[in-house]
Specification:
It is a single-pass type I membrane protein. The protein has 495 residues and is α/β, with parallel strands linked by helices. The chain has helices spanning 162-166, 426-494, and strands spanning 44-46, 49-51, 58-61, 66-69, 75-77, 80-82, 90-92, 95-97, 104-109, 112-117, 125-127, 153-155, 158-160, 168-171, 174-176, 192-193, 197-199, 217-218, 228-233, 248-249, 253-257, 281-284, 318-320, 323-325, 337-340, 343-346, 374-376, 379-381, 386-389, 395-400, 406-408. Strand 29 and strand 30 form a beta hairpin. The termini are far apart.
């Protein structure tokens, strides 16, 4: 027999009385009115207690005046709140998920898989020549080059030979058309090659390997002739390599052969890239020494990959986001910077641009010499905290004082404030203004009423005085008349 609930209980109760309603967080029945007495939760179950949200990862600490890690934080896992996600799930934004959303990639942090924002394109591992789907491929060609689009890691090798650029037959039954040179842009996102990079043919209108400008590492797990991991042969139109991001050739030797116009390679300190003393560089057949091609002045003695300050292996003075410069914008120039380990690091946007003094001491909003807008604790911010979740799930509201320092609003200001105390609350200001208006109106009304009463009283008094004067004048007239008559009568008698 089903239990009949009171109308206000919305069919969720543990008894027929109006006071027997279940908690609002209950999805079905309950054994009592509390959130931990629900038979099922509407949103999340936190150790047997139904809640609308799990404890957040961050909370606002009013004593430290900053956002800190919540020691009681939990993750959303289905309809449960858990302290840690299952080992086969990924942690992202306080939830346990099966895969990262677009723009994020998995990163292992202390044994926990987490979704982190990608710096540039998200890592995408692709099969190289001789691996997986390209096991039978001879080289990169028009039939497979689209498979390298947006790849950041190549598991295998990258090979370019002349036949695939001019067109050839892979077998009697399948013809491979010539490859469009613009398709080479697919390799601009590649950062790592686990095998080797071999190029023996390159488009004549491309004078460098600029499409590989973001390549950072060649691991050399497989090698050409079992000894070379970087091979450039017979590239007659190549003028410089342009491998500006290459930092490591983990294994295998380098061969640069029969590249008559290739310059700058003789300046490269290859030992900085090699991981073993046994690795060597074999560069022959270049006439570049006759052309007097030298590295940019801002390049260090480690050499360069081509002309200009962006092709240096390392900088003579300072590195500004991959470009070697003579000095950082410490006291002048835009944007203002700070020098850290030979790098020009841009000051945070909330730092006030100083004149004749350093704008910041380091990166981030906590290292500004002066704030451009407001200061919350030690951090420069565009606005003071406005409804930030703090301790015990309370909202933190702050206002800027005269020195642009963020100060806490009165605890009773639930919608922010413009100043200290209750008078700073927007609602209190409205109530105070209304109260003053009402009191002022009443006071004016009382004063007007008193004035009217005084005027009426004065008019009455004046009327009484006038009437009294008239009566007195009449009495005096009668008296005088009677006296004169009496005198006449007496005179007659005397006669």
């Amino acid at each position: 027999m089903s239990l009949l609930c009171a109308e206000q209980c919305n069919r969720r109760c543990h008894g027929p009385k109006p006071g027997d309603c279940c908690n609002d967080h209950c999805a079905a029945g309950c054994t009592g009115p509390q959130a931990h007495e629900c038979l099922a939760c509407k949103d999340f179950n936190d150790d047997g207690t139904c809640k609308d949200t799990c404890p957040p990862l961050k909370i606002y600490n009013s004593k430290l005046e900053q956002v800190i890690d919540n020691p009681n934080a939990k993750y959303n896992y289905g309809a449960m709140c858990v302290k840690a996600c299952p080992h086969n799930y990924v942690v992202t934004e306080g939830s346990c998920v099966r895969s990262c959303r677009a723009g994020l990639h998995e990163v292992n942090e202390n044994g926990v898989q987490r979704c982190k924002p990608c710096e540039g394109p998200c890592p995408k591992a692709c099969d190289g020549i001789g691996i997986g789907s390209l096991t039978n491929a001879m080289a990169v060609n028009s039939s497979n080059i689209d498979s390298f689009k947006e790849c950041t890691k190549i598991n295998g090798n990258i090979i370019f030979i002349e036949l695939v650029l001019i067109g050839c037959f892979r077998d009697p039954h399948y013809q491979i058309p010539p490859m469009d040179p613009e398709k080479l842009e697919n390799f601009r996102t590649v950062k790592e090659i686990t095998g080797y990079l071999m190029i023996s043919s390159w488009p004549q209108n491309r004078t460098s390997l600029s499409v590989f400008e973001n390549l950072e590492m060649i691991r050399g797990r497989s090698k050409v002739q079992n000894q070379y991991s970087l091979v450039m042969v017979n590239l007659k139109h190549l003028r410089w390599l342009g491998l500006r991001s290459l930092k490591e050739v983990s294994a295998g030797n380098v061969m640069l052969k029969l590249n008559s116009d290739l310059c700058y390679t003789q300046t490269v300190n290859w030992s900085l890239l090699f991981k073993s003393k046994d690795q060597t560089n074999k560069s022959v057949g270049s006439q570049c020494s006759q052309q007097n091609q030298t590295c940019d002045y801002e390049c260090s003695k480690d050499g360069c990959w081509g002309p200009g300050p962006t092709m240096c292996l390392s900088c003579r003075h300072f590195d500004r986001r991959g470009r070697c410069v003579a000095q950082c914008n410490l006291l002048q120039g835009e944007p203002r910077e700070v020098e850290i380990n030979g790098h020009c690091v841009e000051c945070h946007s909330e730092c006030f641009t100083m004149s004749g003094d350093s704008t910041c001491r380091g990166p981030g909003p906590g290292n500004c010499s002066k704030c451009a807008h407001y200061k919350d604790g030690h951090l420069c911010v565009a606005r003071c905290p406005h409804g930030v979740l703090g301790d015990k799930n309370t909202l933190i509201w702050k206002y800027p004082d005269k020195s642009a320092q963020c100060q806490l609003c009165h605890p009773n200001c639930t919608q922010g404030c413009s100043g200290p105390g209750l008078s700073g609350c927007p609602g209190e200001m409205k109530h105070s203004t209304l109260a003053v208006a009402v009191v002022g109106g009443l006071l004016v009304a009382v004063i007007l009423l008193l004035l009217i009463l005084v005027l009426l009283r004065r008019r009455r008094i004046k009327k009484k005085r006038d009437l009294r004067r008239i009566l007195q004048e009449k009495e005096v007239g009668r008296y005088c008349c009677n006296k004169s008559r009496l005198r006449v009568i007496q005179n007659r008698r005397n006669r």
